[in-house]
Design a protein that fits this description.
With about 250 residues, the protein is an alpha/beta fold. About 45% of the residues lie in helices and about 10% in strands. The protein has helices at about 5-10, 30-35, 65-70, 75-80, 95-110, 120-130, 135-150, 160-165, 175-195, 200-205, 210-220, and strands at about 15, 40, 50, 55, 85, 120, 155, 240-245. Helix 5 (about 95-110) packs across helix 7 and helix 10 (about 200-205) packs across helix 11 (about 210-220).
């Protein structure tokens, strides 16, 4: 009994190929042929199958540089690279870290049947200060590890790997004094608002400031309540050439 492959299953829909930069040189011309002719033959048969798909590819590699090095076919690169979307690394969008971390906390808590619900302020500060060379996947693994180690309702800083804990203790001198103060205020307010469910009266009480002053800070720092409690990691992380062919 023959089985439908990924291409055939995705007919009239979308096919997502992760890490397209890892595709070997031997397979690249075969893949290019499928893209150009929009048809293929199942292994072991002579029957031609036509497909009509939207193709989305993702990679963390520089495909242009790979073309220059001869490790990625130029014709396949231009065939894929119709619409390109570059998603900055996690270290360049630190406002996403608390949202993603809370999402992974909820998922891991359910997965391991843990009662953990929140991060301590020190733990969240350490997550925000870390550079995340492994991007969202590293954050997900870190939160999962912390949930496994936690025993109460709160993930604390000692539940995090040593490298992440120590990163929050290292001084950074890449910004001016005013920038550092602004970023500190922004992180503190955002974290407090999230912990208080964006209830401003309660947030002002926790911070020990007047509610009117809190409102002014929120406006000055351009803080807005997200529509959802978290954002999806699957749509935000990589270089994604997109190809639509009908």
């Amino acid at each position: 009994m023959s089985r439908r492959g990924r291409l055939e299953t995705a007919d009239q829909g979308t096919l997502f190929l992760d890490e397209i930069g890892d595709l070997g040189l031997g397979l690249q011309p075969k893949f290019l042929r499928v893209l150009q002719e929009r048809k293929f033959e199942r292994l072991g048969t002579t029957t031609t199958t036509n497909v009509n798909i939207r193709l989305i590819c993702a990679t963390n590699r520089d495909l242009g540089a790979m073309v220059q090095q001869g490790t990625f076919r130029e014709d396949l690169y231009y065939r894929l690279n119709v619409v390109q979307m570059h998603v900055p690394p996690l270290r360049e969008r630190r406002d996403d870290i608390p949202l993603l971390a809370q999402h992974f906390l909820q998922v891991s808590g359910q997965q391991f049947n843990k009662k953990v619900k929140r991060f301590s302020r020190l733990a969240l500060h350490a997550l925000e200060e870390y550079s995340w060379p492994g991007n969202v996947r590293e954050l997900e693994n870190t939160v999962q590890r912390a949930v496994v180690l936690s025993e109460g309702h709160t993930v604390d800083v000692w539940h995090l790997p040593k490298g992440i804990r120590s990163s929050s203790e290292e001084p950074t001198l890449s910004h001016s004094y005013e920038d550092e103060v602004r970023q500190f205020k922004r992180r503190l307010l955002l974290r407090t608002l999230q912990e208080c469910g964006w209830r401003k009266a309660e947030s002002a009480r926790v911070l020990g400031v007047a509610r009117g002053y809190l409102h002014r800070l929120i406006n000055q720092l351009e803080l807005k309540q997200p529509e959802e409690e978290y954002v999806s990691a699957s749509t935000r992380e990589k270089l994604a050439p997109i190809r639509q062919f009908n």
